[in-house]
Design brief:
The complex is a heterodimer of chains A (234) and B (1017).
Chain A (H helix, E strand, L loop, with lengths): L1 H12 L5 E9 L7 H4 L3 E4 L4 E4 L5 E8 L1 E8 L3 E2 L2 E6 L7 E5 L17 E4 L2 E2 L3 E2 L6 H6 L1 H22 L2 H23 L4 H16 L7 H16 L1
Helix pairs in contact in A: 4-7, 5-6, 6-7
Chain B lengths: L1 H10 L4 E2 L8 E3 L15 E6 L5 E8 L4 E5 L6 E6 L6 E6 L3 E6 L5 E6 L5 E6 L17 E4 L7 E6 L3 E6 L5 E6 L7 E8 L4 E9 L2 E9 L6 E11 L6 E4 L10 E6 L2 E6 L9 E3 L4 E5 L8 E6 L4 E7 L2 E7 L13 E6 L5 E9 L4 E8 L8 E7 L3 H4 L2 E12 L2 E10 L3 E6 L2 E7 L5 E8 L16 H12 L2 H14 L28 E7 L3 E6 L5 E6 L10 E12 L8 E10 L4 E9 L19 E4 L3 E9 L2 E8 L4 E4 L3 H10 L5 E5 L6 E6 L13 E7 L5 E7 L9 E3 L5 E3 L6 E7 L11 E8 L4 E9 L8 E5 L2 E8 L9 E11 L22 E10 L3 E6 L11 E5 L3 E5 L1 H4 L10 H5 L28 E6 L6 E6 L3 E6 L14 H33 L1
Antiparallel strand pairs in B: 2-64, 3-4, 4-5, 5-6, 7-8, 8-9, 9-10, 11-12, 12-13, 13-14, 15-16, 16-17, 17-18, 19-20, 20-21, 21-22, 23-24, 24-25, 25-26, 27-28, 28-29, 29-30, 31-32, 32-33, 33-34, 35-36, 36-37, 37-38, 39-40, 40-41, 41-42, 43-44, 44-45, 46-47, 47-48, 49-52, 50-51, 52-53, 53-54, 55-56, ...
Classes of the chains: A alpha+beta (234), B mainly beta (1017).
Chain lengths: 234, 1017
Amino acid sequence: MRIPLALFALASSCVSALALDLKGRVQWTPQCPSLKELGQAKVVLDDGKMRGGVTRDGSFTIPDVPAGTYILSVIAHDHYFDQLRIDVFESDTLPEVRPYFPGTPLSPAAPATLPYPIVLSARGRADYFVPRESFNVLAMFKNPMMMMMLGAGALMLLMPTMMKNMDPEALEEFKERHAKMTSIQSSLQSGDLASGFSQLLASGGDEPKAAASAPSKGPSSGGAKHRGGKNKRK
Amino acid sequence: MRLLSLLLGATCAFALHASEAGVIDWHKALAGVPLVQSAATAPSFYRRAFDNGATRSLVLTATESNVLAVLDPASGSLEWRHVFDDDDHILAYRKSNDVVAALSGVGGAYLRLFDVTDGDLLLETRLHSPEMGRLFEPQDLGTAVAFGVGNQAQDVYVLTDGHVLRCIDRSTGDVKWGWSAPDQTSLVVYSKILATPSAVYLLGLTKSFASYTLHVTSISPATGEMVANGNVPSSISSGFSDVVLLRDLREPELEPRLVWLEDKSIKSFPLSPNLKAKPAVIKGAVYKSVQDVGISDYGQLVAVQEDGSGRVIRLSSEGLKVIWDYADSVDSPQRSDSIYAGGLDVDGYPYIARVFWSHVYKQASAHVFASHLAEGKGLVTGYTFPFKTEEHGVISHVAVDAANPEPYRVLARLFLTTSTGAVQLWQQDQLQWTREEGLSDIRVAELVELPERKVAAHAGVAHETFGARLRRQLSDAQDFPQYAVNFARRFVTGSYASVSAPVAHSSNTTELLSRDAFGFRKVIVAATAHGKIYGIDSADGNVLWSRVFGLGWAAQVGGHIIPAKLFVTRTVNDGETPQVVLVTQRKANNGLVDTVLFHVDALTGEDAMGKSVPHDVLQGQDVVSGPLVEAFLLRTDTGRAVLLLDEFLQVHLYPETEESRRTFEKALPSLRIPLKSGPPGQRRLTGHQIPPKVEFTGRHVAYQTWTLPFPPTEDIRAVFARPADPVASLGKVLGNRTTLYKYLNPNLLGVITGPSATLLPSKDAACGVYLVDGAKGTIIYHAAIPSVDGFCDVKATLVENWLVYHYYDNEAGPGHVKSYRVVSVELYEGHGVDERTMSSDLSSLSNETTSVSVYEQAYVFPGGITTVSPTSTTYGITMKDIIVANGNHQIQSFPRRFLDPRRPKQKPTAQEMEEWLIQYDPVIPNDPKRVLSHNYQVAKTRRIVTSPALLESTSLVFAYGLDLFFTRIAPSNTFDVLSENFNKAQLVFTIGGLALAIVIVKPIVERKRLRERWHDQ
């Protein structure tokens, strides 16, 4: 028995003189508690020519890895794992394990090394779905457009009473400022929309000035225009 | 930046809602067609005994798709499967009570143990490097697995390479001992293991002059030392097929026996550890074969006599004993040859079933023999069952499982594998279920549009009497209340036809298939290499119809049909039911290859040529007596015709009508046919034209116009062309109001080259991607791709003016990144902006065809892929996405915006922002929201077929390989239907609120006006 076994070892060692079996373990975490959750998974080097399956206890072995630098990744259907950089040396019986970020150059290598045997744990479970937006009154009123509309409505209702309480000079000043504000606001809001739109609003803003002699009509018509513009945008 | 781009992608494009999963898509997980050639991989029943005494039956099998699968015989569902890699073929599997061992790879390189009930991988050990393994023919020769018995129940014995035996501990995977044949150079090839408590017997064959001699070695199971070794005086001509190792686990005191056929008689040799015995001969009959029916561990085998009659032989204390002769089993033209299969019942008693097909009664028969019944005299239960041979071909394998609920009554369950790749379970004469595993081997598939539903038949309206019309209108009107109710409900709730709803099924099955509102429902016509064509409903994946190919004259010698191309020759737009033409190669068993054409109706599967009988095999038409070189569909405004080129480049047309001839003559002047030619290893691309004059044979013969040789290290691996989809815009308007015109040469062809498959891999192997003008052989674009250890795995696709290719870059030098790469290439006309050469209509003789500007960009891709396809829409307005089948068994889409070759390297300027360009990031994000197959495991996808729906925004996606998967995707979101997020309630709420505001405000305003008037005047 001894002799055949020795022969056996010799036969396998002549192949693997410069190679090593890369061993590691997938750690079961609450995110990925068992192989049942993970499904059929394998740990591969580079493009998958060298690989090892993940067994029930999480361990894996990639046999006969020759000297070189490799990227280790886990091929699993639903879970994400970090990639690792593995350096296998001809002289050393232990490989060097480093974290690796996809797309970064292999040299210079990251200074931090990780322990060997490799321990991997799932970084997260893939979420394939987007939640559907559902109707929510509160969310609807959180919408800035909606808030602006409400604000405009409130202003419109309050305006006449506010105006009444102002003295005529202040009113005159306020109207001028208001006209300016509307033109600025409209140009800001319309953005890439046709400039004609802003002109339309500008003309609406001009109206109170023209109708300054008839202050009774001014605010209400200006307010109505303003609201009209808002509704159009909706 | 990456996060930002991910966010950007996520917000402005298609993603799946959880409620849509399984509604807009479907997935059929398949196991593959069982490997029935070898008993080590063929399906078998297995009964798992639990500790509480309960048992559960399962069916185990290894399949042609390289999958180890376990099926539930009660429901036919796939319990679990383990998908093996393509370079790691399953050679054998073996079950014990709670684990399955599988041996795979060249010479048995890998041993894996699985939990039988849930398929968890328990152990994976590599026994030798696959490169060092010995190749045998047949593949499973030289490898075997056996479980230890008795005290060695923890051990697994693995024979690899024909001469190495290992004893492996089941739980740790440690090699307890190894033994290898002392003289490896000798001609002994071991192939079978018999593990007993006293010895492990290895059975091998030694090649001697003109025949083989059996060789047995006995090894101590505890230490692995050889006990005895020697040839058994024998002379065998047919290898291991007529050798059986017989023992009885129920009576362990019986000595196991080696049984073989020699000179038409059965000889046996009792096995004892010291191998001291004399061979014995069973006298009295002339035999032609000895069959191991799967219960050799229970001491029974089937021997077939010279006249074809079968008898059961059993191991007993006085050697071998014939215990049963099957009546009426003599070879006869009235029935097919018998298939024998052995199985066990709950208590472990063996049963042997004989199954045959009766040509007279057109039914299959099963005779189940139970040796222990009728006070040990044996009992046969016979019955016939209505196997549908016209639907499933012939039975190629049987596995049996039996029950004996009461004395003199045997219930058998038969697990059949058929020649078309279906597996069926029959309980006595009742069919329990059928799985069409042949669908795991689809070679060609096409999506065919369905016609609209006929609303009402108004035939003969003109000659209707008043009474008849009144009656008709009344009968039409009786549906009106329902319609009104529906209308009202639709109006109130806003439940319109939705893009995320399941495609409506017509409950009426007799009604002809019809499409849905958006054209999401189509028929998938798919042909498999197991001689069957299927029509699959794209709404739910059910098989609508299927036909088995007839072999024509080759039915006498046998043969098989391999589908080559599938063309839709008539669509619904032509006003009639759609039809497809399938071009196949028929390989007869006498070596002759013919090109056979099948022409079927895509909705019903009926033969459009009218040659075959309904519900029988589909008869084809031999169009070329010889292999096919190329076939394609000619499309002109006068019609469609299939053009075939045989090996002498003669032109054949189908259908051979005046109309198709006119179509051909019309297309003739512009036909340029690029072909692969030359022997493997030095393939070239050659261009051909067809002369207007016919040769003396009465056929046009294509002549060569150009040759494009590739470097000697490169061989053509794949040729791909642009899909014939319409192109909506001829150019791309840039931010600075200039235009890049797309290069849309209709003859553009992509070629992937790589080291020849016939040569040994070498380090200097080179690969490349070429874009060639198929009309004159000019290379428009070329990229050299580094090889990985002499191999290349390049996947590419071409759509409009956009080429995308994917490969693995193994360069590990400074500044390099080892990763998968995807390169996106866009071709534009001229040498800059605003240059236009009208490439889509340009004559191929023009020099302008080579004036091209190329934009390209490489990206780091998240992983390996098996195939890649672009999306396809009706008018080509929607952005094209790239759909890949990735290594994680997923179907994933990648948006064009990430792959745009014009992504700027710096922060995008205002002009670039206007084009929606995002800053270059070398890594393409792996976004799970774009995994179309979400939780489904879509394994070994070979091809993704995309097809337009009626909605411009939506593209239908069908992926096939091992599994089938169908979904739909809207690359630019469903812009042409009301969004799923559209909220009718919100709209109503807003309008209602506004109306309320008006109602409240109106009196206030009026009152105010009135007051103002009073105050002003």
